[in-house]
Amino acid sequence: MPEMISLEEARQLVLSKVRPLPIESVPLHDAVGRPAAANLASDIDISPFAHSAMDGFALRADQIARASGESPVELDVIAEVAAGDVFEGEIGEGQCVRIMTGAPLPEDADCVVKYEVVGVVSGEGKPGGRVSFSAPAKVRSNVREAGEEARAGEVVVRVGEVVGSAGVGFLAGCGVTSVPVHRRPRVAIVSIGSELVEADQVPSRGKIRNSNAHALAACASAAGAVAVRLPIVEDSLEALQAQIKRCASEYDFVVTSGGASNGDFDFIKPAIQGAGELLMATVNMRPGKAQAFGLVDGTPVFGLPGNPAAAYLGFEMLIRPALRKMQGFSNFERPRVRARLASDFKKKDPRRIFLRSTLTKAEDGSYVVAPAKNQSSGLFGVIQRSNCFAIMPEGLESREAGSLVECVLLDVSEDVAI
Ligand SMILES: Nc1nc2c(c(=O)[nH]1)N[C@H]1C(S)=C(S)[C@@H](COP(=O)(O)OP(=O)(O)OC[C@H]3O[C@@H](n4cnc5c(N)ncnc54)[C@H](O)[C@@H]3O)O[C@H]1N2
Ligand code: MOO
Fold this sequence. Notes:
InterPro entries: MoaB/Mog-like_dom_sf, MoaB/Mog_dom, MoeA-like, MoeA_C_domain_IV, MoeA_C_domain_IV_sf, MoeA_linker/N, MoeA_linker/N_sf. Catalyzes the insertion of molybdate into adenylated molybdopterin with the concomitant release of AMP. The protein is an alpha/beta fold and about 425 residues long. Helix content is about 20%, strand content about 30%. The chain folds into four domains: about 5-20 and about 185-325, MoaB/Mog-like domain (Molybdenum Cofactor Biosythetic Enzyme, Chain A); about 25-45 and about 145-180, Molybdopterin biosynthesis moea protein, domain 2; about 50-145, Beta Complex (Molybdopterin biosynthesis moeA protein, domain 3); about 335-410, MoeA, C-terminal, domain IV (Beta-clip), CATH 2.40.340.10. The chain contains seven helices and 26 strands. The chain has a six-stranded mixed beta sheet, with no helix packed on it. The radius of gyration is 31 Å and the shape is elongated. It starts with 6 loop residues before the first helix and ends in a 9-residue tail after the last strand. The mean pLDDT is about 95. The chain binds ligand LQZAQKY5 and molybdate ion (MOO). The site of ligand LQZAQKY5 has 26 residues, from helix 3 and helix 6.
């Protein structure tokens, strides 16, 4: 196993060890935000029939071809057709049908003229009355055609396409009421550390609240997974090894935090090695150099570092892509923009540094990025108040204010093109 690998190598390694999970069928509403696991077809034409796009009068365009302001054309209103009804009679010369939005276009009509441009001659434009037209209309104007969006049997959502809220409506119209999707991964969240107490406790001296478990569970849910927070594990190799072995048999992915470094009480690496196979230990990034990954009985086990910002970044960069792949997503990169640095940055660590930063848009439309003053890897609040990571590439090259840096946007979907 190499000593330290790049973030790209680490991501490839983790991605190579996971596959899309088995397919299940979920009710249409539960498919929102998830990639379809099969092509989905409509059972009918969409729209099912040609219908009026306006409240007005249905007629044949040639009936009013010579209409003008000086010599309007008058027609008798012979019937009224509402949405849900069907008019099956004939429309003779000199006649038209009052029609509502959504009502099927009568067989004999080829256009609809909306109320607003029609004059009422008698009978309030209702059946038995008479109306006048002072301009011609185009054939098929104000008509929504049958099969405009899809034909019966046509694939309307392709495999891999992420179903949006509008897609849910589209599929409902197509008669698709359940959608095959890849099962959501079940992720075990295990916090390691004898110093930890649960968030509802007030820590005594030397103890600290287990905030990582909550953040990582939230990250897992945001990635579409089902997160289960498990009890804190003390710094003991035996206890940790037993817990990851148990989790590996019950979950699709195991995430631990803490104990990933080389301290006297850091046990995740030997625990993975003892229970299975350790494939990775350190990644060339900051925060979060210590990133352990391996397989236990075929299940991916990821040992994040204990420092909150380091754990968060490791999850974002290395675990989130894997959880997405397991659900059939194909984009694994959060959107990035290039921004001008708001202040000088002196690079003292050759690792690739992800600066917790705030991105804003200047008046000329360009982006400006301001790194937070406190870049300690022990802080969650700084990330809560940031909206991106500004990336300082490997090496020791410092950057001056105004120079362009690449920024990864936080909490913006990989499927968004910016
Ligand atoms: N000699 C060295 N020591 C350390 C190095 C190093 O290169 N040489 N790297 C430091 C860095 S950077 C990090 S990051 C940590 C990573 O090590 P661990 O994964 O073993 O982290 P822990 O020691 O377990 O914890 C670090 C820190 O985070 C707190 N913590 C742990 N778990 C949680 C949790 N669930 N919720 C909130 N906070 C947590 C813990 O109390 C520590 O303060 O190693 C450094 N050391
Ligand atoms: O790996 Mo540590 O997080 O650089 O802070």
